[in-house]
UniProtKB/TrEMBL annotation:
It comes from the Bacteria. Gene3D superfamilies: Jelly Rolls. This is Cupin domain-containing protein. Residues 40-112 form the (S)-ureidoglycine aminohydrolase cupin domain. InterPro entries: RmlC-like_jellyroll, RmlC_Cupin_sf, UGlyAH_Cupin_dom. It holds the Pfam family Cupin_3.
């Protein structure tokens, strides 16, 4: 049987993977993640929905990621760079090599597409 060529990004269809940032990356709070990874293709391509409860942690990107915020409010700060507040309907790209912090002020849910570097 051939895989479907159209895949809905739908969190109802599957169970979420639960997680947290690595303990040595947490700056404040107790952020809890839920991820619904609906696509995992050869070559390191991933797509789905991610959600986090409030907290702040260090981030370091080795991959390229497109994000579209569905709900909530977060602050993303690049080391030595700008502070960016993101909320519902904001879209952005984080490129490989980005280092900084992600702080969830209000539980945040985003759609994502990740391409491994």
């Amino acid at each position: 049987m051939t895989e479907p060529r159209f895949v809905s990004v739908d969190i109802v269809a599957g169970a979420a993977e639960e997680g947290t940032p690595a303990p040595d990356r947490i700056i404040s709070g107790n952020p809890q993640f839920r991820t619904w990874n609906v696509e995992e293709a050869e070559g390191g391509l991933y797509a789905g929905i991610w959600e986090s409860t409030p907290g702040k942690w260090r981030i370091e990107y080795d991959e390229w990621e497109f994000c579209h915020i569905l709900s909530g409010v977060s602050v993303i700060t690049e080391d030595g760079g700008e502070v960016r507040r993101v909320e519902a309907d904001d879209s952005f790209i984080i490129r490989p090599g980005f280092k900084g912090s992600w702080e969830v002020l209000e539980t945040t849910r985003k759609e994502y597409v990740i391409r491994a570097a």
